[in-house]
């Protein structure tokens, strides 16, 4: 979905309020705890939380600064500042040279970023955003099965190939955003795209890096959705899309954090 979702502007301006009377997502962003967190600290929190939840493994190499910035919806300077802070905090290590880059340290310090609390505070809001996305995307899938043409299906195929070939979570995320936007546009209901872009734009502000093998498995769901659309099977397309998005309740940090906390308590 790229910059069309307004994710860059949202993430860079988290600390600002929307003008009075401006359109908002179904769930008001003015109430989000991350709105009180700087762009640098949101990057620190998202990478640190991914480490805490085991989504980023010790020794794992992060995508380059440009790809990381695009995936997290911030500027490259913001990513460089965040990585510098995480290095000082013992979460990542930057190595120079042709084989260098930024890596999660072998024994990363955990729970070092206080701003992670904003993400935990927003957990109810994230669940509501997921539900709103389910309603919108299931409806888009229903209509797209009746209206999408060959160019639209070709765009979905291109995104699927891109995700299959992705070498990092950042590359995969770019293809995933484009896939879902292409499906929404295939519904032929442009008047609803603005609402969809606001909901997904706000939800993407909470996405974390994920293991590539997990993401590739999710691409199999994309292929099944595409097949249902090509077969003009509206009921199956809507059900597959609903289940695909509903899985975020468990696979996003809100579900993973709950599981981790229960494990610690037990």
From TrEMBL:
Keywords: DNA-binding, Transcription, Transcription regulation. PROSITE patterns: HTH_GNTR. It holds the Pfam family FCD. CDD domains: WHTH_GntR. The keyword Cell division does not apply. The keyword Transcription regulation applies. Residues 37-107 form the HTH gntR-type domain. InterPro entries: GntR_C, TF_FadR/GntR_C, Tscrpt_reg_HTH_GntR, WH-like_DNA-bd_sf, WH_DNA-bd_sf. This is FCD domain-containing protein. It comes from Streptomyces rhizosphaericus.
């Amino acid at each position: 979905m790229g910059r069309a979702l307004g994710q860059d502007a949202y993430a860079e301006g988290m600390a600002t309020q929307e003008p009075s009377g401006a359109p908002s997502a179904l769930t008001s962003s003015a109430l989000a705890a991350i709105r009180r967190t700087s762009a640098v600290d949101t990057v620190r929190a998202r990478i640190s939380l991914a480490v805490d939840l085991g989504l980023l493994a010790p020794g794992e190499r992060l995508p380059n600064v440009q790809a990381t910035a695009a995936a997290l919806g911030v500027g490259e300077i913001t990513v460089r500042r965040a990585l510098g802070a995480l290095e000082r905090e013992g979460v990542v290590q930057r190595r120079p040279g042709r084989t260098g880059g930024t890596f999660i340290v072998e024994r990363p310090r955990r729970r070092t970023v206080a701003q992670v609390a904003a993400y935990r505070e927003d957990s109810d809001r994230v669940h509501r955003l997921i539900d709103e996305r389910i309603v919108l995307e299931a409806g888009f899938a229903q209509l797209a099965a009746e209206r999408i043409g060959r160019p639209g299906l070709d765009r979905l195929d291109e995104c699927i190939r891109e995700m299959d070939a992705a070498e990092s979570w950042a590359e995969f995320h770019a293809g995933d955003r484009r896939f879902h936007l292409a499906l929404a546009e295939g519904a032929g209901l442009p008047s609803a795209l603005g609402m969809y872009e606001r909901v997904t734009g706000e939800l993407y502000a909470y996405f974390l890096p994920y293991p590539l093998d997990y993401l590739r498995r999710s691409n199999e769901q994309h292929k099944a959705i595409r097949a249902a659309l090509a077969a003009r099977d509206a009921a199956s397309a809507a059900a597959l899309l609903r289940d695909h998005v509903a899985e975020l309740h468990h696979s996003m940090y809100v579900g993973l954090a709950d599981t981790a906390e229960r494990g610690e308590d037990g």
